[in-house]
Amino acid sequence: MNPVEIIKKKRHGKALSKEEINYFIHSYVKGELPDYQVSALLMAIYFNGLNDEETRLFTRAYIDSGKRVDLSHIHKPSVDKHSTGGVGDKTSLILAPLISCFDVVVPMISGRGLGHTGGTLDKLESIPGFRVHLPVEEFVKNIEKLGVCMIGQTDDLTPADKKIYALRDVTATVENTGLITASITSKKIAEGAKSIVYDVKVGTGSTLPDIKSASILAGNLLKISRDFSLGAIAVLTDMNSPLGYAIGNWLEVKECVELMNPALKKSPFSNDLLEVTLFLAGAMLFVAGRTNSIEEGIIMSGKKLASGKCYKKFIEMVVNQGGDKTFIEDLSQYPSPKFNDKVTAEKSGFISKLDALKAGLASVTLGCGRKHMHDKIDYSAGIILDKKPGDYVNKNEPIYFVYGDSAEKISLCKQILNESIEISENKPEIKNKVLEVIN
Amino acid sequence: MNPVEIIKKKRHGKALSKEEINYFIHSYVKGELPDYQVSALLMAIYFNGLNDEETRLFTRAYIDSGKRVDLSHIHKPSVDKHSTGGVGDKTSLILAPLISCFDVVVPMISGRGLGHTGGTLDKLESIPGFRVHLPVEEFVKNIEKLGVCMIGQTDDLTPADKKIYALRDVTATVENTGLITASITSKKIAEGAKSIVYDVKVGTGSTLPDIKSASILAGNLLKISRDFSLGAIAVLTDMNSPLGYAIGNWLEVKECVELMNPALKKSPFSNDLLEVTLFLAGAMLFVAGRTNSIEEGIIMSGKKLASGKCYKKFIEMVVNQGGDKTFIEDLSQYPSPKFNDKVTAEKSGFISKLDALKAGLASVTLGCGRKHMHDKIDYSAGIILDKKPGDYVNKNEPIYFVYGDSAEKISLCKQILNESIEISENKPEIKNKVLEVIN
Question: Which long-range contacts (CB under 8 A, 24 or more apart) does A99-102 make?
């Protein structure tokens, strides 16, 4: 195999063969192919794309590069949820314990935040003691025991994806539907779930600007998932404004606990976070075969959440993975950030926009996320929305509260948050967060 | 500077700034930027191109990365010739001594063969003892003394181009007009000549398939050359069939000596090699200011060649650079390859095609060229054309003679050569090799 000829072939827009794709991926993982030839191929793929068959071959090669979790001995339906990433996107923290209350196992492998989007792993790690790095054997044991386990990507599963994703990240070759599809589906197939719901985010705070591009990715995810016998549904949800009221790792855990714990009634029950979470829960129960429709699943999930059983399961999961439940049971014990401030309305009117991208970037300046993979996270820092799009605000009334460990960071954060706000005289139409279901 | 953002910018088709281009090139040369980010940028450039200003900035950065030869103290016109590469393309061996007979200095820095095209350096090195790796100081001294010196690229001149070209070669990012232009012109500007003739090859045996793409490259070469005050003319010449009768390093030197030495009258005087060589010579004399037209230069060059003075100068140059002139003065002394064979006509008729790409690839199997940069060259191996396109051939009459050091290589070479031949019943129209002059 001549790597230059393979790169040239893709550069000319031709489809690569199984042998060529396997040669590139497996040689790279073995260290026999240099980074620079792989990055050149990735950039050629960025421009000329991968067809369905090539995407399937990439997915297969990623899976075959590592172990594959087998949960068949548990004899229960299994389901996972994957989000393409957004701001304030914390639904996994509720969905994993919630769905496992229905005798459906939830093996969930999540990622870290990068850029303006948050990551489930960082949120979990804000709970003191919570361990997200478990070997595959312990992951399987936890699922056997509790029906749910949430961990980070391990070296055992899809190591080829891990190595190639790291290279894509530093060579501006992330944004390609075929490569994204292979990366996501290979991980999901390797982790052992038999079905999956894809939450494909659409809008400024996501990687996909419009419904058209989101639909293309969703279609690809479904096609490749089914090629590998993974039951799948995609839900397109709006990410033009942050989801829920909190942005920042511990603040998001807190918001979820307030939704899960029936003793706490702080958040308005009918907010957008609940809408998206229950819809995804309904879709998960449906795709796992527990209900005959998404709607039936939504109703069952709402009842389960209100019953407090999901909260109880969340506590069990936290304890099972080494987390200190006292912080969950008494949210006020968590250390508060040294500094706080607020962003107020410059004029009275209806909030027509709270831009998710700007809010996400603002949260990164506080240390909620990373500009680079090695950046340190400030778990307690973050932003609380006091208003949501559609709300009326008086001049000088607060829109955001900001928490952080330095006045400089807060000042920079406020600047960016100010740019996120649009206020109009007329009440804007606020659409549902769930835009479309593709299955 | 964030390299990922710079790659992304070019990926989106935007023009890079001076600071961004300098950052990428100079950091790479210093070893501060990894290969994989540079190769990703190069592939993005392959797809989205470089505009004139970016090409100029690449050229400038390449030049500034090393020394620049100054020949102004010689007080004579100076001219070089650069070919984009072909099969049997040996004109430099005649042009360098020929033009220096007109009191015009010729500082010539050439390259090696790679892929199906031959390289002037390999041809020169087939002369026992000939040294092509000279320090810049010796290069200048030779030009002062003889008016001509032919060497290879040194580490002193345009090291950035050298490092980036090596990366382009292994990442399938060679074929881009902007990158090719910057690479060629920077070397020519750094080597100290004040004027240049570009021989832009067109056809199967070149890197440019048609007149349109060759004209674009030629236009770019002229534009950038003039931006740096280098007088320039481009000549588009046909490379659909090999130039002259010989392919292979020593065989090509021999063909040139037979043209230069008036005592030898072996080659037909009016062949295509002579046509192209004299035309380029005329263009060199014209662009150097020695004549008022290319045509005048052609006539003067033809006379000089016939006079034997060019041959005398060639011998002087060989001796001056350590070569053993006895092999030149008595061509029969050169060791012959162990094996030889011939490729014959399968039917009678007119030869309508002897494909240059196939002939070039066939010569590589004999060891005349390299598949990889570290491959060893067999200087005495090669192919002699017994017929040229337009010639009539009887069935079983030889078309090619093949020379090599193993029967296997010769067998493989013959197979490829067979595919290069097309014979037709009607006499094909044979056009001139010189297609167009752009200035």
Answer: A99/A148, A99/A281, A99/A284, A99/A285, A99/A288, A99/A301, A100/A146, A100/A147, A100/A148, A100/A313, A101/A304, A101/A309, A101/A310, A101/A313, A102/A285, A102/A290, A102/A300, A102/A304
- pTM score: 0.87
DSSP H/E element including B396: none
Contacts of B38 in chain A (CB under 8 A): 36
Asked whether the beta carbons of A39 and A171 are under 8 A apart, the reply is yes
Q: Determine the angle formed by the axes of helices B18-29 and B52-64, rounding to 10 degrees.
A: 30
Q: How far is CA A437 from CA A83, A200, A282, A433, in A?
A: 14, 10, 12, 12
* Residue-level pLDDT at A347: 97
Test B47 with A47 for CB contact under 8 angstroms: yes
Q: How many CA atoms lie within 13 A of A168 on its CB side?
A: 20
- Given a contact cutoff of 8 angstroms between Cβ atoms, the answer to whether A224 and A182 are in contact is yes
Question: What DSSP string runs through B240-300?
Answer: SS-SSSEESHHHHHHHHHHHH-TT---S-TTSHHHHHHHHHHHHHHHHTTSSSSHHHHHHH
Interatomic CA distance for residues A368 and B381, integer angstroms: 67
The answer to whether the Cβ–Cβ distance between B43 and A38 falls below 8 Å is no
A394, burial (CB in 10 Å: exposed 0-12, middle 13-18, buried 19+): exposed
Q: Tell me, what amino acid is at A101?
A: C
Identify which of B5, B167, B172 has the shortest CB distance to residue A8.
B172
CA A378/CA A69 separation, integer angstroms = 33
| CB atoms inside a 10 Å sphere around CB B213 | 16
A154 versus B13: the higher-pLDDT residue is B13
Helices (H), B101-228: 120-125, 136-146, 159-170, 177-190, 211-227
Q: pLDDT at position A118, please? A: 84
The one-letter amino acid code at A182 reads A
Distance CA B13, CA B9 (A): 7
The whole-number pLDDT of residue A269 equals: 53
CA dihedral A99, A103, A106, A107 (to 10 degrees): 170
Residues B403, B409, B411: CA angle, nearest 5 degrees: 90
B35 in contact with A, Cβ within 8 Å? yes
Three-state SS at A374: coil
Mean of per-residue pLDDT scores for chain B:
95
> Could you tell me if B1 lies within 8 Å of chain A, comparing CB atoms?
no
Read off the pLDDT of residues A308-361 as tens digits, 9 standing for 90 and up: 999 999 999 999 999 999 999 999 999 999 999 999 999 999 999 999 999 999
Q: Is the pLDDT of residue B267 over 60?
A: no
B36 CA: distance to closest CA in chain A (Å): 4
Q: Name the token pair of B339.
A: 């094996």
Q: Tell me whether residue A401 is exposed, middle or buried, using C-beta atoms within 10 angstroms of its C-beta: 0 to 12, 13 to 18, 19 or more.
A: middle
Lookup result for tokens 């449906």: A286
Q: Which residue matches tokens 């970037």?
A: A361
Sequence-distant (6+) residues with CB within 8 A of B418 are B343, B346
**Order of strands, sheet of A382-385, starting from the edge strand that comes earlier in the sequence:** A246-247, A382-385, A398-404, A339-344
Contact assignment for B4 to A171 by CB distance below 8 Å: yes
From the list B8, B37, B172, the residue facing A4 with the nearest CB is: B172
Chain B contact for A164, CB < 8 A? no
Q: Which of A14, A43, A371 to probe the B interface (max B CBs under 10 A)?
A: A43
Mind telling me how many Å the CA of A221 is from chain B's nearest CA? 24
**Helix or strand or coil: residue B53?**
helix
Give residue for tokens 């399987």: A140
Complex ipTM tops 0.90: no
Which of B20, B39, B179 would best serve as a mutation to test chain A binding (most A beta carbons within 10 A)? B39
Given CB atoms, is A45 within the 8 Å cutoff of chain B?
A: no
